[in-house]
Amino acid sequence: MAIIGLDHVQLAIPQGGEPQARAFYSGLLGMAEVPKPANLSASGCWFTSGAVQVHIGVDPDFRPAKKAHPALLVDDLAGLRARLTAAGCVTRDDKPVAGYLRFFTEDPFGNRIELMQWAEA
């Protein structure tokens, strides 16, 4: 038995937050929204980009994830940072990690999101 991959990351949002989730994950991060299976809850929304999936679920006792976070690998970190900054999102640098350029931001609900790009050798 071996773990062979990561299927998706689930993040929580408060009730009624789907429009803001769509604006952030699709509008700013450029992920495509995909339909949820009919047998799952009507609330929340799912996004994909390449092999990466982010599932957004409504939690009635929502509290933002301030430490736990997905780290999304991107191909134009500087361009994405400029887009997020122009939209009023805060971006924060952190300690360097060998082989990567990176920063942190938050989704509209306060969930921590790390954005990374491979550093050129």
For the biggest sheet, the summary is: 4 strands, mixed
The structure class reads alpha/beta
CATH top level class name: Alpha Beta
> Into how many domains do the coordinates divide?
1
What CATH calls the topology is 2,3-Dihydroxybiphenyl 1,2-Dioxygenase, domain 1
Cα-to-Cα separation, first versus last residue: 35 Å
Q: Please tell me what the overall shape is.
A: globular
Quaternary structure = single chain
Radius of gyration: 15 Å
Number of helices: 2
Percent of residues in helices comes to 10-25%
Question: Briefly, what is this?
Answer:
This protein is of the alpha/beta class. It has helices spanning 18-28, 77-86; strands at residues 9-13, 32-34, 45-49, 52-58, 71-73, 100-106, 112-118. It contains two helices and seven strands.
Q: Topology of this structure?
A:
Layout lengths: L8 E5 L4 H11 L3 E3 L10 E5 L2 E7 L12 E3 L3 H10 L13 E7 L5 E7 L3
Structural features, described:
This protein has 121 residues and is of the alpha/beta class. The chain has a single domain (9-118), classed as 2,3-Dihydroxybiphenyl 1,2-Dioxygenase, domain 1. The chain is built from two helices and seven strands, in the order βαββββαββ. The strands form two sheets. The protein has a four-stranded mixed β-sheet with strand order 1-4-3-2, covered by helices on one side. A three-stranded mixed β-sheet has the order 5-7-6, with no helix packed on it. The model has no long low-confidence stretch (mean pLDDT 96).
